[in-house]
Design goal:
With 192 residues, the protein is of the alpha/beta class. It has a single domain (26-184), classed as Vaccinia Virus protein VP39 (Rossmann fold). It has 6 helices and 7 strands; from the N terminus they run αβαβαβαβαβββα. The chain has helices at 26-35, 54-61, 74-87, 99-103, 124-133, 181-184; strands spanning 44-48, 66-70, 92-95, 110-115, 137-148, 160-168, 171-178. Strands 3-2-1-4-5-7-6 form a 7-stranded mixed beta sheet, sandwiched between helices. Helix 2 (54-61) links the parallel strand 1 (44-48) and strand 2 (66-70). The N and C termini lie far apart (45 Å).
């Protein structure tokens, strides 16, 4: 796997060979970043379930100001750290933590969020609610959601709307525009 475009175009992305990691296919990454081309330069990005780091590395290569990579697997997190060092990357940081635990912490707003959990994990709807309700999104943020094509789309929080969608083999990729709950006056997670 390689970085598709930007400053590190063609540079290899090395990651541990494990059944847990399912990197976003090149074709899907290329389409995603075509959709986001005007939004990535200077953006603050969050790569939840970073895995190989391919999405966040692509964002940094294309001019994102910062990317926080969240990955619970120790080997995968170490591989992303090594790649950042090898590329001489600035603006990238790795948090070795479960995504739900990370989202329960102190929030800061991101312009673009990559949400690509293991297909078998589920919980996409809850993750979207946490992002919206807990202050993790800048106004009009983009959230990329990748899931198995055979699974129904998660219910999106109030103020979120579908923007682009594609299917490639077993992958369904969606890009949504998200307005945080604080901006829409919507209920927060846990409210009744």
């Amino acid at each position: 796997m390689r970085v598709i475009a930007g400053n590190w175009r063609g540079r290899p992305i090395r990651f541990p060979s494990t059944t847990e990691l399912r990197p976003t296919p090149d074709r899907v990454r290329e389409t995603l970043f075509n959709w986001l081309q005007a939004s990535v330069p200077g953006a603050a990005c969050l790569d939840l379930f970073a895995g190989s780091g391919a999405l966040g590395l692509e964002a940094l290569s294309r001019g994102a100001a910062q990317v926080v990579f969240v990955e619970r697997d120790r080997q995968a997190a170490a591989a992303v750290r090594r790649t950042l060092a090898e590329f001489g990357a600035t603006g990238g940081s790795v948090v070795e933590q479960d995504a739900f635990t990370f989202l329960a912490g102190t929030a800061r707003a991101f312009d673009v969020v990559f949400l690509d959990p293991p297909f078998a994990q589920g919980g996409l709807g809850e993750l979207c609610k946490l992002l919206s309700a807990r202050g993790w999104l800048a106004a009009r943020a983009f959230v990329y959601i990748e899931q198995a094509a055979r699974v129904a789309a998660p219910e999106l929080p109030d103020g979120w709307s579908g923007w682009r969608e594609m299917r490639a083999g077993e992958v369904c990729a969606r890009l949504v525009r998200a307005t945080p709950a604080s901006a829409t006056g919507g209920a927060r997670v846990g409210d009744t």
